[in-house]
Design brief:
Elements (H helix, E strand, L loop, with lengths): L1 H67 L7 H4 L2 E3 L14 E7 L4 H12 L5 E4 L4 H13 L3 E4 L6 H4 L3 H19 L5 E2 L14 H10 L3 E2 L4 E2 L10 H12 L4 E7 L5 H16 L3 E2 L12 E3 L2
Parallel strand pairs: 2-3, 2-8, 2-9, 3-4, 5-6, 7-8
Antiparallel strand pairs: 1-10
Helix pairs in contact: 3-9, 4-6, 8-9
Length: about 300
């Protein structure tokens, strides 16, 4: 009997060990599955978050490429009844004297005075396409642009793409605000305009012909650009690279309208400006402000 009982006890102990092992294995599997699910949920969250960042960056790049690449073909269905202006007759020929128009967008800011100081040092006149700023802070900057012989133009009041391009009414209201600000502050009834993003921008909620037709109706002239310094892109160009970007394209045209910026974050543009002016002078270019006699450089125009 003792032997039999001993055998039964061993069997029971063995079954208990097996049961404990099975339980341990099941618990291990459950824990592993839970960890796997947690890791998968975390990875899905990260992928979704990354995708959102990629989409946002892609949208930003799309806008930037629109701003900087004037040679890119424009989707006719998006641009409504407008056409690309090829400016073929503006291609430089041997013996031409380059006519260069330095234009500064998005100011005034604290960098505007520094740029005006440099222009004054070199006795160079430029064109400033300004946005709406507090005149108690920047009124002197608006006036200084005009008083020192530079041309002043409109670059919208808000520079808010979605608001500005929402409709014809929103565009007209914005136009009137920036026009009146410049007139009241400087006394200049300017008719110069530059579309935020250019006339070929792809972020407008309304066909660009609507806004172009309005500008035409009030006698305003919009200027785009055919030379970009690169200071509007997300890429951090050095001052020397900004100069090289301009100089490599200026040689292509009889008339070059150069896109620069005098916003608060454009310190590199300020740094590049003296060398740019010196390089243009060395190349025999005439640096001028935009006037009624300036050849009009546009990306697109309304179909006639």
């Amino acid at each position: 009997m003792d032997i039999a009982n001993d055998g039964l006890e061993k069997q029971r102990a063995k079954r208990k060990r097996v049961a404990r092992m099975k339980k341990m294995i099941v618990h291990t599997i459950i824990v592993f599955m839970l960890l796997t699910i947690a890791v998968l949920v975390f990875l899905v969250f990260q992928v979704v978050s990354l995708q959102k960042q990629i989409n946002a960056l892609a949208a930003q790049i799309a806008v930037t490429e629109t701003v900087e690449d004037t040679d890119e073909m424009v989707d006719d269905s998006f641009l409504d009844n407008v056409y690309l202006v090829d400016n073929a007759d503006n291609i430089a020929e041997e013996g031409d004297i380059p006519m260069v128009y330095l234009t500064f967008d998005d100011g005034p800011s604290e960098n505007t005075d520094a740029i005006l100081d440099i222009l004054d040092d070199y006795n160079v006149k430029a064109t400033f396409f300004v946005v709406g700023q507090d005149t108690e802070v920047y009124g002197d900057a608006y006036r200084r642009i005009v008083d020192e012989g530079h041309s002043i133009g409109m670059h919208s009041f808000s520079h808010n793409y979605s608001k500005l391009y929402q409709s014809q009414d929103s565009f007209i209201a914005d136009y009137n605000k920036i026009h009146d600000l410049i007139l009241d502050t400087t006394g200049v009834d300017t008719k110069l305009y530059r579309f935020p993003g250019g006339s070929s921008n792809k972020v407008s909620n309304t066909g660009m012909s609507v806004f172009i037709n309005y500008l035409n109706s009030v006698g305003a002239v919009y200027y785009d650009w055919n030379v970009a310094s690169g200071d509007a892109t997300s890429q951090a160009f050095t001052a020397d690279e900004l100069v090289d970007n301009v100089m490599s394209d200026v040689v292509k045209y009889k008339t070059s309208v150069v896109l620069l910026h005098d916003g608060a974050n454009k310190d590199t543009t300020v740094e590049a400006l003296p060398r740019l002016i010196e390089s243009l002078n060395d190349a025999g270019a005439m640096i001028l402000p935009i006037t009624d006699e300036t050849e009009i450089i546009q990306h697109v125009s309304v179909v006639q």
